[in-house]
Each structure stands twice: as C-alpha cells, then as structure tokens.
Amino acid sequence: MIELRHFQYFVAVAQTLHFGRAAKQLHISQPPLSRQIALMEEELGVKLFDRTRRSVRLTRAGERLYQDAVDILNAVAQARRNAVAASRGEDGAISVGFMMSSAYNILPALTRTYAAAYPRVDMKLAETLPNLLADAVRSGRTDVGIMYRPEDLDGLDSATVFREEMVAVLPKQHPLVKARVLDAALLANESFVSIPREIAPLVYDLVVGHCQRSGFTPRIRLEANLQQTIISLVGEGLGVAMVPVSMSAISSGGAVFKPLRNAPVVEVALLWSRDNHNPCVGTFVENARAVWQDLQHAPGARVVADAPV
C-alpha cells in the first residue's frame, strides 16, 4: 500500500534527480530509499524513473505522478495548518483579496490589526477587480474578499466593514470648483468618466441613480476599471466623475474633489464562502467587525456610521 511517506520520498527524488542527495535531504540512507521507490513502482505497475549509472530522469508516468504527488502533499500540509489553527486559534494561513480602492480606506486597518492579533497566521494579499474577486472567494481560490458587495451573493456571506459618502471630481479649471457643496443637477450637461457596471455594479448604480434623482441620466463618455484612473482622466479634462471620498487621498494636480449635496453612500463589504472551513476566516471576520466598530467612533473619521438599532 502506498503511504504518504512514499509520496514524500518520490517527490524528493523527482526534484533532485539524485538518490543520494534525496536520501540526505530525507535523513535516511540511500538503499532504503531505493527500495521504497522500487516498491512504489511495483505497487503502481509503472516505471517512474529511468536510471543509468550516471543519471536519473522521470518517465512520462513519473512526470504525471509528480504533479499529483505535489498536490497531495500540499493538500496534506494545508489540512495540517488548518488543524493547528483550529486547535490554537493562532496558526494557519489566509488569502485576502481586495479591490484597489479599499487600500485607501479600510484595507490598511484590517490587515494591520489582524497581523498584530495573529502574528503566526500567514496572510497573503492580492489585488483583484471586484467582479473577479467574488468568483475567487466563491470558488475557494481566495479565502476572503474586501470589495463592493456584488449583486450575486449565492454561496457567500458578507459583512459591512466600511461606509462613506461619494464626492464629485472635477477638472481644476472647471467653473464649479468654486462651489462649497455641489448639487449634482449642475452636472447634467457634463461628460462623465465611470467605472463599468460589469466591474462594480453597486458603484455604477449609485452614480447613475444619484444623477437620475437630480433630474438627468449621466452621459458616460469614458469608462475605466480603477478609481485612480478615473481621477487621472478627470484631471486631464476628459470629464467629471463621482468617487468615494477616501479616493480624495490620491494626489492629482489636475483634479478637484467636491462634496455632493445629499451624497450617495457606498459600502465596502467583507465576503467569504459558506463552504470555506479555514478557521482563519472566522478570526478575520471577527477582527474586521471590531475594526469597523472602532472606526465609527474614531475622531475625525470620514465614515457613515451604522444606523442605530
């Protein structure tokens, strides 16, 4: 019967292509290693290595088994990490996907506090477009996602972790930059730069809905996937836009940010899959909820607090 150690022996030989070096790496002598590989070949009924006095190389069967063996060992390692994290609540690994704009509001606080509270958790960050991030979380490729809440939440749980108003973005030469608070109706004849609806339907609908409540449907001239690109295009005089207020932290000499009257409010959510049993997900969610609660009471924080219960 093939056991886990046989896969470990096989992978070591496959990676070194040298029985002596593999045996040293495994802290065993070479003859037992050679016997175990031979028993593995006998059990499988295939030849895994072509061996001569001068070289060792994988057969086609060996190359295929190597891919599967690495996957098996990785899966076992992940299971071990999850078991340790479950028992101790402090070890493990978590992958965090985030949309770019969250780096200007909630992402730094979430990751900083989580890393401080769980220093032995291996946290991996990856920036992803919102429309792709939801699928990555749902499929398990990413443990948690920080993004605008998607329309399709099938199989997902979510929690609000940030809420803020949106502001208008104008070219600095625009006559309306003198206004202290901007009424969206004054932008009725402007060309807009917007995020595509397929990338972030929540933000797109907020912008269009606010304009429609102000008596017009925005004429979208340009679309860009990233908020900083939108701001840059506005700064070049190619239109106006509405973005979350936290994006005003971006330094753009050509763009001016103006508060909107009755501004629409945008939420950032934390998403995770109901089928994800990584125990680190629970600790990340718990930490995120606490950070959001603290942020709502922080002096000077530009957030829209939860409605009183």
UniProtKB/TrEMBL annotation:
Pfam families: HTH_1, LysR_substrate. The keyword DNA-binding applies. It comes from the Bacteria. InterPro entries: LysR_HTH_N, LysR_subst-bd, WH-like_DNA-bd_sf, WH_DNA-bd_sf. GO terms for cellular component: protein-DNA complex. Keywords: DNA-binding, Transcription, Transcription regulation. GO terms for molecular function: DNA binding; DNA-binding transcription factor activity. The keyword Transcription regulation applies. Coiled coil: none annotated. Residues 2-59 form the HTH lysR-type domain. Belongs to the LysR transcriptional regulatory family. This is LysR family transcriptional regulator. The lineage of its organism: Bacteria, Pseudomonadati, Pseudomonadota, Betaproteobacteria, Burkholderiales.
